[in-house]
Amino acid sequence: MLFDRYRAFLPLSEHTPALTLGEGDTPLVAAPRLASAIGVRELFLKYEGANPTGSFKDRGMVVAVAKAMEAGATSVICASTGNTSASAAAYAAHAGIESIVVVPAGKIALGKLAQALMYGARLLVIDGNFDAALHIVRELSDEFPVTLVNSVNPHRLEGQATAAYEICDTLGGPPDALCLPVGNAGNITAYWLGFRRYHEAGRIDRLPKMLGFQAAGAAPIVLGHPVEHPETIATAIRIGNPASWCYALDARDQSGGLIEMVTDEQILQSWRDLARLEGVFVEPASAAGVAGLRMLASQGRAEPDARYVAVLTGHGLKDPGLAVEQFAAPAPVKAEMSAILGWLGW
Ligand code: F0G
Known about the structure:
Blueprint: H1 2-5, E1 28-30, H2 32-38, E2 42-47, H3 57-70, E3 75-79, H4 83-95, E4 98-104, H5 110-118, E5 122-126, H6 130-143, E6 147-148, H7 154-160, H8 162-171, E7 177-181, H9 186-200, E8 209-215, H10 220-223, H11 245-255, E9 258-262, H12 264-278, H13 288-298, E10 307-312, H14 320-326, H15 337-344
Parallel strand pairs: 2-10, 3-4, 3-6, 4-5, 7-8, 7-10, 8-9
Antiparallel strand pairs: 1-2
The site of ligand F0G has 22 residues, from α4 and α9.
């Protein structure tokens, strides 16, 4: 349990309830085949899809909901492109409190919608995008007795920082660089917080570079201005005005890293490669970090001997519709051996 393993690094008191669904301790998968396809020596995949609700959000949500319970809250609220809402709804259900989740109409992957419904959230679908939803929940939580559990809640970031601790503990030191998708920019902020904390505590002797990647149609940080109508196939990161924008710039600049953008085409290529070359199925947004690393390598901007870790933020089954759309459904073959052998070409 995260609370036991990283208690010294979490904002827990003796009154914080021991909430858990078994989050954290996710696999760090060596990816030699993908590394060689990309052209880097060493690549590990931090597979956050293995969390209880299928995304990295659980690390922060368990802390945010436990702290909300400790403060006597009976209701939590969030805006979401899908994963935050799934996670908030699950932890609220486990805690026995209400969750209200606000999502943009028509842009939530099917698995995430199913989760919010199943976990019993009050699901408010708005005719507007994530940025509008975040504005609404901020206002509501300012005026009404409901706790905001988006990543602007500092407990979320503290919880998500545990992924950085796990990577260092598993590798026996920090990676040289961390590649990850950037949407609302909470996760890049949390990882940088985590690496700095571990450094200050003397657990690691140097800091990794933070390499963040936005989708080209939703790249406000790269462009330097908000994007009014963000668009990308990677719906999880379809965000035009990230809440943690300035912290993401700090992470980039203090680490000597970068935040750049990748096209939907590049994202989909890495999304397929992750599944086919390594057996790791992620949702499209999660492939943005790998797509970014591939782009850097192809431009001669990757360090050939560096140890890279790419964060795979969400499970592939979150967005099954897109996966099926990408491939023509095979026509049925007669259940007779001759027909089968013909199909196999044997
Ligand atoms: N990858 C996935 C699968 C996500 O769901 C998100 C964010 C990100 C990457 C980007 O992380 O926002 O911390 O920069 N999803 C949020 C949500 C916005 O509502 O589920 P970030």
